[in-house]
Amino acid sequence: MTRRLLVHAVVLCTVIASSSVAVAHVASQDRRPVVHRSSSVSAREYRFERLTSPWRTVVRDERGVVATFTDGARTVVITGPARTFSAVATSSWVRLAPQPWTAASAQGAWLRPWLDKALEDRTEDVLAVAAHYLPGAERDASAALDAAGYVRLVYGYSLPRTPAEMAVTGTAVPADRLAVQPGDLLVFSGPAEGSVGIFFGLDQYGHARYVSSRKRTDGPAFGGDAFGRHRRGAALVAVRRL
Fold first, then answer.
1. Which residue, 29, 61, 65, 77, has fewest beta-carbon neighbours within 10 Å?
2. pTM for the complete prediction?
3. Do 20 and 71 belong to one domain?
4. How far is the C-alpha of 20 from the C-alpha of 116, rounded, in Å?
5. How is 88-114 classified by DSSP, letter by letter?
6. Is 141 in contact with 150 (CB distance < 8 Å)?
7. Tell me: the pLDDT tens digits for 220-230?
8. H-helix or E-strand containing 129?
9. Is the dihedral of CA 197, 156, 126, 108 positive or negative?
10. Is 115 in the same domain as 136?
11. Which domain CATH number covers 176?
């Protein structure tokens, strides 16, 4: 028995999902492909404000502050979901911009696409990578790192080798608990070449907590209040933003 195969149309529908656009391609025997676009994420409206000490640009949308860019630095503090690192609870995520920030960067063609993506990015940031090397973590570094070696492990080996050299790297930030932000390098005086750590944030008591490493003792670990008293005459001498 012969059957007739009736084909009225062949429709191929491919949906390509992105962060902001869904595209549907429809093809048939009788017409050319048609493309329909619809926005899946409402466009954000950013407002930029310039602040000093250090010079920086704060970015806001309808929710409030979403990012802080500092002149001369690539580290950017992004507002995201809250996380807890030991005693520090923070909603700050530290990302590296593709280039150092300047006052004119707000008009840069790269900024909007980069910031849109960064605000939705939940992959590991600087703080999460730094936490990998704390005691008990998956990549526990144990006693294998001195202070500068730990910072270079997190930020990259293009950084100088000693805390003294790191004290003049990047953008200077006032040594004040209201000026520092997560991801900043805290440089301390002390025996030999001193020490350096990565600032994580304030704990529930308002203490400025940071992670540093001592090769001869316990490797990377949280230190006490960066602005408090330290053993053996150590004191905070510089804050740098990379």
1. 29
2. 0.79
3. no
4. 10
5. EEEEEEEEE-SS-B-GGGGG-TTHHHH
6. yes
7. 888 888 988 66
8. helix 126-131
9. positive
10. no
11. 3.90.1720.10
